[in-house]
Design brief:
Length: 272
């Protein structure tokens, strides 16, 4: 694809100004769109049909030529922009120079749980956008059927979260529901057992292989406070990850990675 960079869009071009507003939650709600930056996220957005407009600097156009060719095949508008315009669209110190404005990709919980899911990640009250994106990426890598963010969580479609997901936001169903008990009810209706991570859980992960062969929804708590006692009491089992060294605990993304991996492994063995 050949682009004319003799008169690129600037940071004052209305289309760029409107795209920059998508960095804020209020802007995303008003426009019913969101913006992603970087090779993986933009490539996935274009390939899955979520992207509506792509903005690219001259240097990035040379670097990501294959993505722009795909834009042509998918009917995605590509706009040349100046380096200053790129900085206005980015929330990073060093911008990659390629961005996509996308239609919303979040699912309802009911739709995300259709089709007899066997493994679902349920982060509860996740507050850090980078963690939200990493949790989506981990779930995608482990072959989970969906990610359901429950409670008052950060927006999975924020630019930081989307970037941390490395494109996985577009690969599997991601839902968000502020009512945690409603989420639990829908998980049970979908035939999933509910396991909650807890430092004092009665089940040690090393001894849980038989349990993990069943269709499972994993609850992962807030980065700072974990899961509350009421929510832990609503789970079918509380599972602890054994820590054999001197570390006091694991961070959220690491705990989720371990639990989802063990579930995926147990389910794969059971299906042989």
């Amino acid at each position: 694809m050949t682009l004319d960079f003799t008169e690129p869009f600037t940071e004052r071009t209305p289309r760029v100004v409107n795209a920059a507003k998508l960095q804020r939650a209020a802007g995303r709600r008003k426009a019913n769109q969101f913006i992603v930056e970087g090779e993986n996220a933009v490539e996935a957005a274009v390939a899955t049909g979520a992207a509506r407009d792509v903005f690219v600097t001259e240097q990035a156009a040379r670097r990501f030529e294959e993505i722009l060719i795909t834009c042509g095949h998918m009917g995605v508008y590509v706009h040349p922009i100046s380096d200053r315009a790129a900085k206005s669209l980015s929330d990073t110190v060093t911008t990659t120079g390629i961005f996509a404005v996308c239609e919303p990709v979040l699912w309802t919980v009911g739709k995300a749980l259709r089709g007899r899911p066997r493994l679902v990640s349920v982060p509860v009250e996740t507050s850090e956008p980078g963690n939200a994106g990493t949790l989506i990426r981990v779930a995608d890598a482990m072959g989970a059927d969906a990610v359901v963010f429950a409670g008052e969580t950060t927006d999975p479609q924020s630019s930081k979260s989307a970037r941390a997901s490395a494109g996985s936001l577009f690969h599997l169903p991601v839902a968000r529901n502020t009512n945690v008990k409603d989420v639990l009810g829908q998980l049970r209706s979908a035939g999933l057992q509910i396991l909650a991570t807890a430092a004092d859980g009665e089940v040690e992960l090393d001894n849980a292989e038989e349990l993990l062969t069943k269709p499972t929804a994993w609850l992962f708590g807030n980065e700072a406070h974990g899961l509350g006692e009421e929510l832990l009491g609503l789970a079918d089992h509380r599972v602890r990850i054994p820590i054999r060294g001197r570390a006091e605990s694991l961070n959220l993304a690491t705990a989720a990675s371990i639990c989802l991996y063990e579930s995926a492994k147990a389910q794969a063995r059971a299906n042989r």
